[in-house]
C-alpha cells in the first residue's frame, strides 16, 4: 500500500470516528452520520489499496 494512500485512509477513519463520537455526545445526528460515512470511506480506501497490493506482482 502506498504510504500516502495508507495515511489518507487512516486519517479518514480517525476523522470519521471523531465526528461519530462527538455527534453522538452532543445529540447531532447529522454529524454522527457524516462521521459514519467518513469512517466507511477510509475503510474502503484501505481495502482498495490492499487489493491493489495483492494483485501487483512482487
The H-and-E topology, N to C, reads as HH
Would you count the extended β strands for me?
0
Rg of Cα set: 14 Å
Percent in helix:
over 70%
Q: What about the largest sheet?
A: none
Question: What topology emerges from the helices and strands here?
Answer:
Layout: H1 3-26, H2 29-55
What does this structure look like?
- It is a single chain.
- The chain is an all-alpha fold and 58 residues long.
- The chain contains two helices and no strands.
- It has helices at 3-26, 29-55.
- The radius of gyration is 14 Å and the shape is elongated.
- The model has no long low-confidence stretch (mean pLDDT 92).
Give a brief outline of the structure.
The protein has about 60 residues and is an all-alpha fold. The chain has 2 helices and no strands.
Descriptors:
58 residues, 0% strand, single chain, 2 helices, 88% helix
Amino acid at each position: 500500500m502506498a504510504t500516502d494512500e495508507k495515511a489518507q485512509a487512516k486519517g479518514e477513519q480517525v476523522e470519521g470516528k471523531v465526528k461519530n463520537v462527538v455527534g453522538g455526545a452532543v445529540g447531532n445526528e447529522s454529524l454522527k452520520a457524516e462521521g459514519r460515512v467518513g469512517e466507511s470511506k477510509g475503510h474502503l480506501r484501505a481495502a482498495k489499496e490492499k487489493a491493489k497490493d495483492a494483485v501487483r506482482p512482487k
